């Protein structure tokens, strides 16, 4: 049997699995001693990340705050083209560019979530035309990150509005497809954008998924 290579991505996968086991245990376990052990597992999973100590502490706090059955978070993103240009937003968090979007909200459908995110981040009013892709971020070339995330990419069309960014966004612009700025790789990769371009151009009638 071929031995697994231990790298950052594998460590993240292990950390995610340990965190999920601990979170589920805390959700259903009543024994106080076992609950303490599950909390210790939460702390161990945070330490497995190859990050600075202050970030590990912040992550530990987030882990311990998770409740209930462990399940993936949903990230919604909008693929909006104008001729041969693609709409991107500059994230204040890292100064790099991504498709408009963010975490899905409760009490809203996925398509309603992306319409809301686009309006908040860009000032534009849009309509979700099609769910182009549903991806498991762990199966793509994103940098290691937490929480475990599924990414929904919607093809959208602009109905109105004007550029107006919120506090999380530094800038908004359309870029030529062959001259994109540095991308925020935790949110979207060049390979994914290239695949989205092909899917939209070919007008396939199905959603690609992992």
TrEMBL record:
The Nudix hydrolase domain sits at 71-199
Source domain of life is Bacteria
Q: Which organism is the protein's source?
A: Legionella beliardensis
GO MF annotation, one: hydrolase activity
Cofactor dependence:
Mg(2+)
Q: Which InterPro entries match?
A: NUDIX_hydrolase-like_dom_sf, NUDIX_hydrolase_dom, UDP-X_N
A Pfam match is NUDIX
Q: What is this protein called?
A: Mutator MutT protein
User: Which keywords does UniProt give here?
Assistant: Hydrolase
């Amino acid at each position: 049997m071929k031995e697994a290579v231990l790298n950052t991505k594998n460590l993240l996968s292990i950390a995610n699995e340990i965190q999920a086991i601990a979170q589920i245990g805390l959700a259903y376990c009543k024994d106080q001693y076992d609950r303490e052990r599950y909390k210790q597992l939460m702390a161990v999973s945070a330490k497995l990340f190859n990050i600075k100590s202050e970030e590990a502490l912040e992550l530990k706090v987030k882990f311990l705050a998770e409740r209930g059955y462990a399940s993936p978070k949903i990230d919604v993103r909008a693929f909006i083209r104008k001729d041969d240009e693609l709409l991107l937003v500059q994230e204040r968090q890292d100064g790099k560019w991504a498709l408009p979007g963010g975490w899905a909200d409760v009490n809203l459908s996925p398509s309603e979530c992306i319409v809301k995110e686009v309006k908040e981040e860009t000032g534009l009013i849009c309509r979700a035309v099609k769910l182009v892709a549903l991806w498991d971020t762990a199966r793509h070339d994103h940098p290691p990150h937490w929480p475990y995330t599924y990414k929904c990419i919607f093809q959208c069309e602009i109905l109105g509005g004007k550029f107006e960014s919120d506090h999380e966004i530094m800038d908004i612009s359309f870029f030529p497809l062959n001259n994109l700025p540095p991308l925020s790789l935790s949110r979207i990769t060049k390979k994914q954008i290239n695949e989205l371009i092909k899917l939209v151009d070919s007008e396939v009638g199905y959603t690609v998924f992992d």
